[in-house]
Amino acid sequence: MEQGQLDSLRNALEEERRSVDRQLAEHGSPADSETVEVDVDEGFADSAHATAERSQTLALVDQLHGHRREIDAALARMDDGVYGKCEKCGQDIPFERLEARPTATLCVSCKQAGAA
Ligand SMILES: [Zn+2]
């Protein structure tokens, strides 16, 4: 991969991490905290609606934390100089795939083999 391509993917990852951090902060769960604290309006705490909303938020926050870990792992791989290699077969992952999904750790064929 060319340095320019790597740089643009790094920028994309860092931008994505900032966006995830913003969303986590909005949901009251800062990125450096693994515990999930969701504020629930006291008056509605017992209603089914609030419960549903709370579990939806928890699921979203959980997803965001997971995504953030993927981004951090991708940036760490860049620092180690192993970014863009398939974790399974060691082949280079095509730039087009990384551009669409910078956190990808598998090439398309390994991904498909794993999903099947
Ligand atoms: Zn592969």
Give a structural overview.
With 116 residues, the chain is mainly alpha-helical. It has four helices and no strands. Helix 1 packs antiparallel against helix 2. Residues 86, 88-89, 91, 106-107, 109-110 line the site of zinc ion (ZN).
What is the topological layout?
Elements: H1 3-26, H2 48-80, H3 95-100, H4 108-115
Helix pairs in contact: 1-2
The structure holds zinc ion.
Zinc ion binds at residues 86, 88-89, 91, 106-107, 109-110.
If helices are DSSP runs of H or I spanning 4 or more residues, what is the number of helices? Answer: 4
Class by SSE composition: mainly alpha
Bound molecules: zinc ion
Number of strands: 0
Beta strand % = under 5%
- The total domain count is 1
Q: Give start-end ranges of low-pLDDT stretches.
A: none
Average pLDDT, to the nearest integer? 88
Order of helices and strands: HHHH
Through-space gap between termini: 29 Å
**What's the shape?**
elongated
- Kindly provide the radius of gyration, computed on alpha-carbon positions and rounded to a whole number of angstroms: 18 Å
Features:
0% strand; 4 helices; binds zinc ion; mainly alpha; elongated; 116 residues; single chain
Summarize this entry quickly:
This protein is mostly helical and 116 residues long. Helix content is 61%, strand content 0%.
